[in-house]
Design a protein that fits this description.
Length: about 280
C-alpha cells in the first residue's frame, strides 16, 4: 500500500511539474501576442489620424472654396435676374443661404477632425496661441526638432497640453505654467503649474475624484501606445507628464506619404499649393 501511495505521489508531482513547465513555456508566447496586439492597435490608430489629416485638407481646401465660389455665382445670378425678383430672387437667396450654412458646417467638420492650428501654425506656435491669457504666464519650450512629427502624436500632444492648460485656466488663473516638450524615440510632454494642485484627497494619498478631462488625457496618450500621469507637486502645483512613442506612428506616416515628383515635392502638397 505504501508503495502505491509513493508511486501516486511521484506521478502527481511529475504532473504538477509538467503543468508548471507548460505554463512557464506559454508566458513568452502570451507576452509576444500581447506586444503584437498593442503594436497593431497603435498602427491602426496612427493610420486613422493620417486619414483624418488628409480628409481635413480635402474638405477645407478643396470642397470649401468650391462651395464658396458657387455662392458667389448665385449672387451674380440674383443681380442679373433682378428684373424678375418675384420669380427668382427669393429662390436664389434661399439657395445662397443654404450654401453658406453648408460651408460653415464643412469647416466645423474639418476643424473637428484635426485642430487647424496645427497645420496653420505648427505644434509649438499652436500651443503658444492657445496659452495666451491662460494664466499669469506660460512658457512653452521644445527640446529637439519639432518638424515632421507624426500626425497622431502631434494631435495627442496638442490635446493633452490643451486640456492641461484649460484646467490651469479654470482652477489656477493666478499661477504660472511651463510647457516642456522633448523628442528622442518618444515625444515627452510636461505641463507644470504653480496652482493649488490636485484635490486634497489625492494629496493625502487617497484616490483622485474621477474627472473627464484627466481620463481623456490618459486615453489620448494610450491611443498612440504611450502613457500619461497627473500628480501634485510638493509645495503646490499640478504636473502632467506624457510619453508618446514615435515609431509606430512614423511607420504609418511613411506608408501613407504621397509619391514625390522629381524635385522631391509631395504630389498632394504640390496640388494644394497650385504648383
Amino acid at each position: 500500500m505504501r508503495a502505491v501511495l509513493a508511486r501516486t505521489a511521484v506521478l502527481a508531482g511529475a504532473f504538477a511539474a509538467g503543468a508548471m513547465a507548460a505554463h512557464a513555456a506559454s508566458i513568452p508566447h502570451l507576452l509576444r501576442l500581447t506586444g503584437e496586439l498593442q503594436r497593431s492597435r497603435e498602427r491602426i490608430l496612427a493610420s486613422r489620424e493620417e486619414e483624418r489629416r488628409r480628409l481635413r485638407h480635402g474638405l477645407h481646401d478643396e470642397l470649401g472654396p468650391t462651395l464658396a465660389s458657387l455662392a458667389m455665382s448665385l449672387d451674380a445670378a440674383r443681380i442679373t435676374l433682378a428684373c424678375e425678383p418675384e420669380r427668382m430672387d427669393p429662390l436664389l437667396a434661399d439657395v445662397r443661404d443654404r450654401l453658406a450654412v453648408a460651408v460653415g458646417e464643412i469647416r466645423e467638420l474639418a476643424h473637428g477632425l484635426r485642430p487647424p492650428a496645427l497645420d496653420d501654425l505648427g505644434l509649438v506656435a499652436a500651443i503658444e496661441s492657445f496659452a495666451e491669457g491662460c494664466c499669469e504666464r506660460v512658457d512653452v519650450r521644445f527640446d529637439g526638432e519639432a518638424a515632421d512629427l507624426p500626425a497622431a502624436v502631434e494631435v495627442a500632444a496638442y490635446r493633452i497640453v490643451q486640456e492641461a492648460l484649460t484646467n490651469v485656466r479654470l482652477h489656477a488663473p493666478d499661477s504660472t505654467a511651463l510647457v516642456l516638450l522633448s523628442r528622442d524615440t518618444e515625444l515627452h510632454v510636461l505641463v507644470a503649474d504653480t496652482g493649488p494642485g490636485l484635490p486634497d484627497a489625492s494629496r493625502n494619498g487617497g484616490p483622485p475624484k474621477p474627472r473627464r478631462g484627466l481620463a481623456a488625457m490618459r486615453e489620448w496618450a494610450a491611443e498612440v501606445g504611450g502613457g500619461c500621469a497627473i500628480t501634485s507637486r510638493t509645495g503646490g502645483g499640478t504636473v502632467v507628464t506624457a510619453r508618446l512613442p514615435l515609431a509606430a506612428a512614423e511607420a504609418v506616416q511613411r506608408y501613407h506619404r504621397p509619391p514625390a515628383d522629381r524635385n522631391g515635392r509631395a504630389a498632394e502638397r504640390r496640388q494644394g499649393n497650385g504648383r
